[in-house]
Design a protein that fits this description.
Four copies of one chain form a homotetramer. Chain A is α/β, with parallel strands linked by helices. Chain A contains twelve helices and 14 strands. Chains B and D meet through α9 of B and α9 of D.
């Protein structure tokens, strides 16, 4: 049984880790870290866990935690883990970090977009970017630190990845228009996240400045072996869960000057995703909807080719708290420990 | 492996049966009955099941079904099963009926409240009312027909049951004010159930005439060994899932003229529910919320004693599609076949 | 032109006052008081007012305000006005107080339910309880202080008022089960009011202890000329606006032992409300829905007599920010200044 | 007093026409046309109109209507008006058509995108495309037929219009990603519009094939004096009202190779919109939100220049039933009859 510690267990992503791990056969949570609720019963914070979790919330003590557990999930604000991580800790425990601290390889880029100094850049190099479908081969039994991708980024990258990798689209034309449920904004008590402010409303935010932009660019850059600069625009949608990314790019023409056909593009998606349990490329003509993946680890993807404009419209949908956070984190843990990758993640989407 | 057939598999309750049974270790669905979608792939109706269910929808042929399966779930309109059920069918297969056809023992009462003739009253007597926590002892390996309780009724009855059973309240004063999410209204295309009509709105409906009233009265009558006549008022709430019942009754005074204490009432609840996995009596002062049980088979219950009025306010919350329909149906199946009662139902509530 | 000052202009009720007064022909706002946003442009807090309101937010200076305006609306927390009000202020300006400070005539009751000391009980006596349809006769040109009723109370009282007044129901049996949209909880940044906590959820709160209870009891007591003790249970509903009160009471039997008929009860409602512009008693069989009054000053009311239990179920719906707060406050202002009572309040409900 | 007839008065746009015209000082509705509800009281369909509208619903008789009214609003399905319109009718009455029948000048384009034959193409030429801020000069006292723009199109065009007109963007790069509330889908009873299907969900639809595409292209083509071919992707959002258009285009570089500055672009917006009552270009950095215009005739617009990609991100928000349908229709009526353009439209947005 793998012993698990969670730091930030009372945020929404932390809560989802708990929900998922309750049905994981080879892992058990032994540390519910939550600085805000120390000594409070966990179920008093999340009543869904009444009579399920009896533990109390503990402090965020990485040192002590490293002694007691096999893996730590850090569902914490940016900069938290970077400020505390040491070689000693990493020598004792594996860490799956749900924050952005080790996602971006270039420290300057991190510091520019996040506006904070990175306190432990020496661990960035070894951290594996845990986008499982792309990087699972890089996660070995020697891996100590996994940087779990962001919610928008997981959705945005997986939706376009095969086409970038195979060079079907002109990456300079890529535009990602993303829509997210409100749990992505976290559980902090802020006026803009109040029910009455979000309900019956939609808005863009972080236009041309959202922090997930460089993460998407870096990863798609690896895929396409080129520099990628995109527009990424997130929107806040009045729903709890779900991200939908609508992506636009100009298709490269074939040698004869024609556009790739639906079948040709589909074949490229299938090449990468046909064997992937958690990526579902939908039937022709079916648009992904966030509701169809709610509560599950799936990403639903599809595309439409517009002959009039020469562009392809790609769409991807996932549950931001599952594949966009806790689910993928558990998937990474499974890979790290050589378990079946889908253990604990056989979650059937809940509808309606 | 128990072979399962579902009739009405493309309604919301039918869809929830499919979701739950996907993770049931000892049952498999072999017949997805849906007259409206015959020959269509099931996942084309419910895209959450894409790459999970490959079956097509079949006709509602009870005869043929009886030959092929061990148990049939009928998630069908009132009168459907009553119109088709025969001794021959019941001799071959067990049936868990999610409709109201066999819930009410008195045919006249059924016909009055439902406004239709009962076509097979001869089976009413043998049908067991499948409120598991109350009647599991009546479900044996010889039981052929289980009448699965209604969503409002499950919630309303379980919330008051111990107090009626033990005679703590004056049942003539019982008032049930219930609030339900919109999935309870089914998937029929009707104007009052359109998004724009339900959203940002709340209303009562079926005031003093809702069909779940006699069902609650009958069952609480058995508990209290008396006639029970109540007010039951359902309300439509702009959310997908969940029922909250707020119930009011006058507490009987003790011999010394005082009201029972919190501890005394709590002890009565504990007597009936402490060992019940799916009934959670919350800590003092915590009000049940539908969100805390969403997606799970739990009923959360609590109460407040009002010294000023001498009344007790009882509150119960459940997910109308799970404990209020498909979950309890699976629980009944588990009992019918001697399986662990919670098999397939270890569903952790999903929050947020 | 009546000069208006608002204290608490950036709360939800304050914002609604601004919205309504924009189209009021005989009043203009000259002071937008908001301690939290002093010197900030009002429209920067509420962007709906962009290019409509150019004013900046000012301090909550009652003294200065009293010099500059004809009427002050205080949409402030309990205790605020009571702590500042003086004879000097009242000698210069009329006040419509949207808080609870002067609603309850008995200081001890106020202090018990609100848990704070009342700092200026000397003004309670002269304050008129501004439930317009009941008390408009008490508001004269000499009235200086109007206690604007609470949102729940306006709905709860008006729904039952004619029957209590005329003695048709046994007031000791009265139970009010109320459901409110989330704007009633105010704009404070609190976790329980976050979108993800409220959405897809319903719960009771303040069970047997909500502060609007004694206010309802007092006013219905005046109507019935008796002591009234009720159960009042508020619920939080995932919608922005709207309150629905479902009320239960035992009908008094007539001399011949029969219940009053629908027509008899309807006649009593009509006696009080037929000429009332803002109270609409719906056609037989139509249940009030909050959506049908949204954005307007209407209260929609109806009832059902249950012959089986001898009870009447009364239902009332209003917009908590309009008739439940700002609309009624403007209605009171209109009465205070001898204007047409509906001036500025000819708001057609917005659907959907 | 202008006599108004509405055909399609019981759809959502028709209902909004009624709401708006109730407070219009120079117009009165004398004909509530609704084939589905003939002889039913209008308020029985829309209870918000109880005690406000006493009229019954009448048939859709254009001939008779032309005799009785000064202006007809047709809020009807595509093809309806085109199938009935005659020279005789137009000689007697002005028509503001809220359908698409006369919006597109090229019949072939209309027939291709709408998939129906146009039955009266002879009136297309004279119809004025009623985008008021752009075309008000074309509406004279001789104008008989106004084609009221679509909801998506009004939002999409106005958001980009000044930049296309002044040649600041490369129109071939224009992409419109639009999000709409569900009232845009109408009041038809269809499963995809049920509460449980829309709530907690977001999806794209009509990708690369939505009918508003050619309308946007045609109008922006006039503005830019060039052919325009765009990508337009609508999305369904779980809210009643509101459209947000997020638009992307590459900025043309200035002679010195640099991008236009914020101030330069702002000046272009101001040139066209500074004097426009119903178009609000927000302060720098403020993103439009649909909630801030709800219930009003405003369009809120803003933009961000992304130096990294050389693109401009434009955003526009409106209420699809007001400026996107009924409000603009009334605005057109006001222009047609020489009234103050904002008569009846001084609607303050309702928040929250």
């Amino acid at each position: 049984m793998i012993k698990v510690g969670i730091i930030g267990a009372t945020g929404y992503a932390g809560g989802e880790l708990v929900r998922i791990l309750m049905n994981h056969k080879e892992a058990e949570i032994v540390w519910y870290g939550s600085r805000s609720y120390i000594d409070k019963k966990y179920y008093e914070v999340y009543q869904n866990m009444f009579e399920i979790v009896e533990d109390i919330c503990k402090d965020d003590n990485l040192q002590e935690l490293a002694e007691q557990v096999d893996v730590i999930f850090t569902a914490t604000p940016q900069g938290f883990l970077a400020g505390l991580l040491t070689e000693e800790i990493l020598s004792k425990v594996k860490i799956v970090d749900l924050s952005a601290d080790y996602r971006i390889k270039d420290v300057a880029t991190y510091e520019k977009w996040y506006g904070i100094e990175h306190k432990s850049p020496q661990f960035i190099e070894e951290a594996v970017y845990g986008l499982c479908e792309v990087n699972r081969g890089k996660i070995t039994d020697k891996t100590r630190l996994v940087a779990n991708p962001g919610c928008y980024t997981t959705c945005s990258i997986l939706t376009a990845y095969p086409l970038v990798k195979e060079g079907l689209i002109d990456v300079d034309t890529l535009i990602v228009d993303a829509k997210s449920g409100t749990s992505g904004a976290g559980r902090g008590a802020k006026v803009p996240n109040l029910f009455c402010e979000v309900n019956e409303n939609i808005k863009a935010y972080g236009v041309a400045s959202h922090r997930h932009t460089p993460e998407i660019e870096e990863q798609l850059g690896y895929a396409g072996n080129c520099n990628v600069t995109i527009n990424f625009t997130p929107h806040l949608v009045p729903m709890n869960r779900g991200i939908l990314a609508t992506e636009y790019a100009t298709l490269k023409k074939k040698a004869d000057g024609s556009l790739p056909t639906y079948e040709e593009v589909k074949a490229v998606y299938d090449k990468y995703y046909k064997e992937e349990k958690f990526v579902r490329v939908l039937d022709k003509g079916v648009c992904p909807e966030t509701k169809w993946v709610e509560g599950s680890n799936y990403v639903d993807i599809n595309f439409v080719i517009d002959e009039r404009t020469g562009r392809i419209i790609m769409m991807g949908a996932l549950d931001n708290l599952v594949k966009g956070a806790a689910g993928q984190a558990v998937q990474n843990m499974n890979i790290l420990f050589g378990l079946k990758e889908s253990e604990g993640l056989e979650l059937v989407p809940c509808f309606p």
